[in-house]
Design a protein that fits this description.
The protein is an alpha/beta fold and about 300 residues long. Helix content is about 20%, strand content about 25%.
Length: about 300
């Protein structure tokens, strides 16, 4: 039998974002093979094809036509569970150009941006398409996502990953290779804007023009310097609610009889999330008490006495 890549090129045919597949496994379905050590292998089923690993070979034909949840053995008698992958599992195994937004952060972004069925979302900084999958699924069949990516190579990787997950190109998705700061999104038409870029504070004017009053901005930044610059710029613009900043730390637990304790490893810092909502006019005069020296002579950011452009 021929040895092929674990994934053929994803279809670009238009599809409607809907529920994940159910019923027997079919050719073209994504499946995840999980061994006794919890190692996971995500593949696309193709008739008359063999999955090869250092632990043996598995025929795709032995899975096609069966319901997920079965156990299958390689020719070296290694057992695997066969399941359709959850989006979290798919994101962590997808091919990458840029680093992916981890599931723990994607879930908070969906919540902070108040995204639900029918939401109209503008995303800037597509990366490898991990967050895009969550946004499209949350917006549902009646919502829409417009994604803007500066790098054409990242846009192509994201397209491949998104199309593979949904089985085609989602009809509710628009992808543009452009710079958000120079683009002209439809004025006031978006419910939420999600930014994953190096300098999101440079795009706030475009974001304000794109969002409806009361719309949500959520920005994903990696460092404390980016975090501080973005928050202070939002405050200076006087068009937003007081920004909120947070990070998520995920720790799993070891469970074995009476041995119940935190795992030694955890998903620690991956990035900071900054959230604010657009006002319909000037923002409220905030009553804050900054720490002594917070805006002293060593501070040169937005709103400081010694501000340097």
């Amino acid at each position: 039998m021929p040895k092929r890549p674990v994934h053929p090129p994803a279809s670009r045919e238009p599809v409607v974002v809907g529920a994940r597949p159910r019923g027997p496994l079919c050719e073209g379905d994504l499946v995840q093979l999980i061994d006794a050590k919890s190692n996971k292998y995500t593949i696309t089923l193709m008739a008359d094809t063999v999955f090869h690993s250092h632990r043996g070979q598995i025929m795709h034909n032995d899975m096609i036509g069966h319901h997920e949840g079965i156990i299958i053995n390689s020719d070296r008698a290694i057992s695997y569970q066969v399941l359709r992958p959850a989006l979290d599992d798919y994101v962590l195994s997808m091919p990458r150009g840029a680093a992916v937004v981890y599931p723990k952060d994607a879930a908070r972004i969906v919540g902070l941006a108040d995204i639900g069925a029918g939401s109209r979302i503008l995303e800037a900084g597509v990366g490898s398409g991990a967050l895009t999958c969550s946004l499209l699924r949350s917006a549902g069949t009646t919502g829409s996502v417009v994604s803007i990516e500066r790098r054409e190579d990242f846009a192509e990787i994201a397209t491949e990953n998104v199309c593979r997950w949904f089985g085609g190109f989602p009809q509710s998705w628009t992808l543009q290779v452009d710079d958000l700061a120079e683009s002209k999104p439809e004025s006031g038409s978006f419910d939420s804007v999600v930014l994953d870029m190096l300098a999101p504070w440079e795009c706030l004017e475009v974001v304000e023009a794109s969002l409806r009053p009361g719309g949500a901005l959520v920005a994903y930044v990696a460092t404390t310097t980016q975090l501080s610059r973005l928050v202070e710029t939002i405050r200076v613009r006087n068009s937003w609610t007081e920004p909120r900043a947070e990070e998520s730390l995920l720790r799993t637990w070891h469970l074995d009889g009476l041995s119940v304790r935190p795992d030694h490893k955890m998903n620690g810092h991956t990035g900071f999330l900054v959230a604010a909502r657009l006002m319909n006019g000037p923002s409220l005069d905030r009553k804050r008490r900054p720490a002594p020296g917070a805006y002293g002579e060593d501070y040169h950011g937005p709103g400081g006495i010694y501000e340097v452009e």
